[in-house]
Amino acid sequence: PLDRSGRPIKVIDDDAEDLDCEFLNNRQAFLNLCRGNHYQFDELRRAKHTSMMVLWHLHNRDAPKFVQQCVSCSREILSGKRYHCNVCPDYDLCAQCYKDPKTNRGSCTHKLQAIDVESEGGQDGGSSSSGLTEAQRKHRQRNLELHIQLIEHASKCNSKECPSKNCAKMKSYLAHARKCPNGVQGGCRICKRIWTLLRIHAQKCKDSVCPIPQCMAIREKMRQLQKQQQAMDDRRRLEMNRHYRKGGISVA
Predict the structure, then answer these.
(1) Contact at 8 Å (CB) between 41 and 34?
(2) Distance CA 115, CA 98 (A)
(3) Cα 130 from Cα 239, distance rounded (Å)
(4) Cα angle for residues 117, 125, 121 (degrees, 5° grid)
(5) CB–CB of 30/38 below 8 Å?
(6) What is the share, in percent, of the chain residues with pLDDT greater than 70?
(7) How do strand 81-84 and strand 92-94 relate by DSSP bridges?
(8) Orientation of helix 134-156 relative to helix 167-179, angle to 10°
(9) 3-state DSSP call for residue 175?
(10) Cβ–Cβ < 8 Å for 68, 62
């Protein structure tokens, strides 16, 4: 296909790659994404914007899903560093307000932690996975599968002289994920990658007792989300039935 200028348009086949995005795995997670970013479908223009952003999140899974706002100047913190309070809920300052001694910090008197804000250049195509060639996409998918196999091997391996060159490295990453003070919420890149691999493994794991770290906990959380989602569906169904019954009575 060609655009209006006669230039070829690259068509992405989503079925060619097993796309995984934590915010699109269940309805509750998707609802949290929409609430956090004010995505709505009540009007056509909002529905178009929301659909565009959902597809962008799907193809840019490593990009941050939520943008923090400075509590002082109310501006979105899109680059540089944000200064986060681990005690006060949803408390972040931009670099400019943090350095300004006259900034009104409200009731927060705690020490703030500096966190690097991940670049969102993927929106302009700089780091977007949608710009990969078919061979690169296949290589990325194969690389992901190999990493999952490695994390499964490293979790079960007890040998100090394992013939696998990457086993010791993956064991160190797993140990880091257990002890890291920042974690995923603090913006640690290693923790994010390890937890992504663990989550993908947990989604496919059927073992009654799995030795992979956090696999059972992740699967339990997924079950709780499914129960919560089922409860939401039941409440919605009861409300619709009640509404239809009232409508039938009023017509009669």
Answers:
(1) no
(2) 12
(3) 41
(4) 15
(5) no
(6) 82
(7) antiparallel
(8) 80
(9) helix
(10) no
Residue 92, burial from CB neighbour count under 10 angstroms (0-12, 13-18, 19+)? buried
* CA angle at 139 for the pair 136 and 145, rounded to the nearest 5°: 145
pLDDT value at 13 more than 50? yes
CA–chain centroid gap for 186, Å, is: 14
Nearest to 93 by CA among 124, 107, 109, 114: 114
The residues facing 94 across adjacent strands are 82
**Rounded Cα distance, 155 and 22, in Å:** 22
User: Which amino acid type is present at position 218?
Assistant: I
Element (H, E) at 4: none
Please give the structure tokens belonging to residue 70.
Answer: 């400075």
Taking CA atoms, 204 is separated from 17, 62, 197, 199, in Å, by 16, 21, 11, 9
Q: 88 and 79 in contact (C-beta within 8 Å)?
A: no
To which residue do tokens 């409508």 refer? 247
pLDDT tens-digit readout, 218-242: 888 888 877 887 888 888 888 888 8
